[in-house]
Amino acid sequence: MTKTNNSQPSPKERSSSRISKNRNANKNQMPLGIAVLVIMIIIGFLLSNISVKLGLFWITGICFGFVLQKSRFCFTASMRDPYLTGGTALTRAVLIAFAITTIAFTAIKFSAYSSGLPIPGQTYITPISFATVIGAFMFGIGMVIAGGCTSGTLMRVGEGFLVQMLTLFFFIIGSLWGAHDFEWWKLNFILKGKAIFLPDLFGWFGAVIIQLLLIAALYILADKWENRIFK
């Protein structure tokens, strides 16, 4: 009686085979990665010869994209994941970023204010009205359907996602259309709201404390939400 030999690989062998294939794929991509790096450096030098700002923008954009891609940081996911998956890691990361920028921007603005200089960024304090709510709601729907906001879309376009390329195309069209009609929207809707600058209402220190307390409350809520979902 002959004994049949089972030729099927074990799970451990299959896992080793997959790891080996991934390593070979990474080795094959190494020359391409080096070529892309050289091209980026050359473009950076060419842009710097035209304008120092262009070179700085190029380097900053590449670094920002690298951080986004490696961290998978996306504002859409931070708002969407608590509802779809229950995870709030990105939500809490965004809240921490808001807390840091709150302190940093307040320091910059208060320094200018205390020195009697014009406060930077005041032109970006726009009126809040019902149009803001409608716009945020529409933009939120679009972000979820598209699978990313501006930062997430640009990052995934760099990764080669075809759907995100389509999203970017219509994002550009919508932005151009919005810029063309912006003055009409501003005159008929936006300016009918009220501009709110928290330091005018609560003072500089009070405004920072209120905003940080609100961010802390949202952070605790996000943490409790994730613990409740995965408990």
Automatic annotation (TrEMBL):
Q: Give the start-end ranges of region Disordered.
A: 1-24
Q: Which InterPro entries does the entry mention?
A: Sulf_transp_TsuA/YedE
Which chain regions cross the lipid bilayer? 30-50, 56-77, 89-108, 128-149, 161-179, 201-222
Q: So which domain of life are we looking at?
A: Bacteria
List, as start-end ranges, the regions of compositional bias called Polar residues. 1-10
Provide the alphabetized UniProt keywords: Membrane, Transmembrane, Transmembrane helix
- Write down what this protein is called: Uncharacterized protein
| Organism, scientific name | Maledivibacter halophilus
